[in-house]
Each structure stands twice: as structure tokens, then as C-alpha cells.
Amino acid sequence: MMYDKIIIRYGDLAMKGRNRGMFEKRMLQQLQLRLKDFAALTYSRMFGRLYINLNGENYALIAERVKDIFGISTFSPVVSVQPELEEIRAAALALMKAMEQEPATFKVSAKRAWKKFPHTSQEMNHLVGAHVLRAMENLKVDVRGPEVELKVDIQEEAAYIFNEVVNGPGGFPFGTNGKAMLLLSGGIDSPVAGWMAMRKGLELEAVHFHSYPFTSEKAKEKVIELAKRLSYYSGAPLKLHLVPFTEVQTTLAQSGQDPLIITLMRRAMLRITERLAEINHAHGIVTGESLGQVASQTLVSMDVIGRATVLPLLKPLVMMDKQEIINEAERLGTFATSILPYEDCCTLFLPKSPSIKPNLRFVEKVEGYLNQQKNLEQLLDEAVKQTEVLLLTPEDPEPEASAGEDRWF
Ligand code: ATP
Ligand code: MG
């Protein structure tokens, strides 16, 4: 193709006022990092826009990556020429002729940002349109619903001609809004929640609770797979904390409060995660909860569970329908992994009728009893100490354990 640049546009960024410079810098760093295999690329920043100069690199391969980079609202491959009528006309025609399928209708939408250019936007629509029409016999103008809208953006430094506008994920560049811990189960929801949190500019560390030997190696591999997928989207290695939860769970089960087991487990998870957050300088906890989905996700349950931590609980899916979440999971490439049928630590202990309306005072009383009789707090500390940490990247076929090699299997 004839494109020589990609225009990168950012949405949320535009609103950041004073922080704008910092965000733009991070955006550029992200592009450079994610596209480092394409050695010939260069970058330029002009009037609040970013341009990738292709210098002969393959546009399609680059677009495939650019479309997933957080902070980008849309991007367009463009032909750039001197801001001069004949050059613009020639480029517009060449672009129309290079299209894989010759369109039947088109229109030109010119925009003169550089006011010293001698023709107005309206004039340019005609001047460029007429030139193209003269050369392409079968083509007609349709201003209402054209097959191709040929855009001509006239700036002082260059004129940009393009017709394609591709959507990026939007949001903020990765890591520009601080760090949070992601509670990552092997299910459908939490990976989607993780992606949404990262899109908002959050750096994440994932935390997974397992009940080895009650849960299998397969279950662990599944979570690793999901974490790797998330690290593809962030373009950065993702830390995965694997917390041994068996002791805590069996102790909670000894409370004899069957309907409250899930409530107690979730509160214990939050307490452990809060400690991990402090050690790792994170300031929030992201979960995949969605209102009303299961007993532990009624509003009353969320209230009682949430009081176990003072950290902000971020729940990107809270108001979404299951089908919407599934669609997202499919789009992100996590769905197929998420539905693999391996036991989760919580399903093992799932009571027959979990409480949908736990009572905070009573829950606290049960925990007080467990602390006194069974050293619950100490067990939580112990779980933190025994936590295994993996550093995952999308490329790594076999991630290496960074602590406690054989503790698991
Ligand atoms: P998911 O599809 O993410 O598993 P879910 O709809 O199955 O969610 P629950 O199993 O009730 O709902 O879990 C609610 C949230 O609690 C999850 O989205 C996740 O953030 C967290 N969570 C549940 N189990 C675990 C686990 N074993 N390790 C880490 N986090 C967990
Ligand atoms: Mg689950």
C-alpha cells in the first residue's frame, strides 16, 4: 500500500489538562515499546497528535498491534504530501485507485486547519472531487451515504489524505493511573475486569487463590494462561501471586456456619490481598463481580464482604449483563480458556444454600471466634508468606517460578 504514516488519536487523554504532556509521553513510550520489532519506524508529535512514520514498514502488521494499545481512541493510515493543491489531488486519486475494491460512490471531506492555505474546505471538496471523478469513469459522488469518504486534512506542515478510521481500545496509556491488585480466578469475569482496569491506565498485579491439592495443576495452568493474555494487552510483564488458601479455607469451614462460608472466604481473600497490596505499593483491588450474579454478589453481600478492606474495590463489570461480559471475553481471547472445566478453590467449598443476606455483626463474631480458637489472622499471614510469584509475559512458553519451586506439585 502507499501509506507513509499512521495518525494516532487519543480521546480520554484530551481531557487531562495539565497532565496532558505526561500522558502523551507515555503514549509515545507505549508505541515505541510495542512496535520495537519494526526497526525502521520513527515517531513525531505535532499539535497534540502522534504520527508513526512507516518508512517502508508493513502497515497491516503494525495496525494489528496498534489496535490493542490502551489510550488510542482511533487511528488512520494516511498518505502525506506537501500542502499544495496539485500534490493533494494526485495523492487523492492514487489512494482511490489503490483500493482493493473499486467503490461505486464517494465524497471528499476536506478540513483546512491551516488557514493560510489558499482554498477553503468547501472549495477543496470540489477541486479534489472533480479531479478524481475525471479519472475514474464509473465513480459517482454521494454526499449522504458514500461507500468511501476521502478525508483531506490540511495542516501547515503537510496535507494528510486517508479514508480509514480504525477504533482503538480508548482509555489511558498503560500505567498512567497507578497500580491495583486484580483478583484473578479461572472464570470468565475477572480477566475481562482486568482488561477494563488496564484500559483505564491501571497497572495490575494478579492474585490467585488455590487449594492445592484439592485443585489441580490444570487449574493453575489455566490462570497462568489468562494472566499471559492480559500481559499481551498491557505490553508489560504481569506479576501473578499464587496464594495457598487450603489452610484458611478448611479453618473457615470449621466455623460450622455453612451458609456464610463464601462470605468468610471472600473477606479472607481481601485481607490477604490487602497485605500483598501494601507490600507491592498497590492502591486498590479489582474484582470481576457483577451485581446479582451469584449469592456473594448481592448488594448486601458486597457490602459485608467489602468491609474487610479499606482499599477501594474496583468492579468494572458491576453493572454489566453476563452476555455482554461473555462477548468481551470472546473478543479478548480469554473465553475459551475460562470455560475449561477445572475446579476453582471456591466451588469446592460451595455450600448448598449460600447466604444472600449475610449479617455483618454476626460475620465479625464468627471471625472473632476463629481468631481466638484457630489463629485465623496468623493463617492469613502464613498464606502471604507462602505466596509464590510468577512473572509472566505473553511470549514466555514456560514461565519460571521466582519463589518456592516445588511447593505446589
Ligand atoms: P469469575 O468469572 O471471575 O470467576 P464469578 O462470576 O465466577 O467470577 P465468583 O466466583 O463469585 O464470581 O467470584 C467473584 C470474584 O472474586 C471474581 O471475579 C474474582 O475477582 C474473585 N475470585 C473468585 N475466586 C477467586 C480465586 N480463586 N482467586 C482469586 N480471585 C478470585
Ligand atoms: Mg468464579
Automatic annotation (TrEMBL):
Keywords from the named record: ATP-binding, Cytoplasm, Nucleotide-binding, RNA-binding, Thiamine biosynthesis, Transferase, tRNA-binding
Enzyme kind, highest EC tier: transferase
Q: Which GO terms describe its biological process?
A: thiamine biosynthetic process; thiamine diphosphate biosynthetic process; thiazole biosynthetic process; tRNA 4-thiouridine biosynthesis
Q: State the coiled-coil residue ranges.
A: none
Q: Which GO terms describe its cellular component?
A: cytosol
Pathway membership: Cofactor biosynthesis; thiamine diphosphate biosynthesis
Question: Cellular location of this protein?
Answer: Cytoplasm
Reaction catalyzed: [ThiI sulfur-carrier protein]-S-sulfanyl-L-cysteine + a uridine in tRNA + 2 reduced [2Fe-2S]-[ferredoxin] + ATP + H(+) = [ThiI sulfur-carrier protein]-L-cysteine + a 4-thiouridine in tRNA + 2 oxidized [2Fe-2S]-[ferredoxin] + AMP + diphosphate; [ThiS sulfur-carrier protein]-C-terminal Gly-Gly-AMP + S-sulfanyl-L-cysteinyl-[cysteine desulfurase] + AH2 = [ThiS sulfur-carrier protein]-C-terminal-Gly-aminoethanethioate + L-cysteinyl-[cysteine desulfurase] + A + AMP + 2 H(+)
What EC number(s) does the entry state?
2.8.1.4
Range of residues in the leader sequence: none
Recall the GO molecular function terms of this protein's record.
ATP binding; CCA tRNA nucleotidyltransferase activity; tRNA binding; tRNA-uracil-4 sulfurtransferase activity
Residues bound to ATP are L183, L184, H208, F209, R266, G288, Q297
The UniProt entry, under SMART domains, shows: THUMP
Q: What is this protein called?
A: Probable tRNA sulfurtransferase
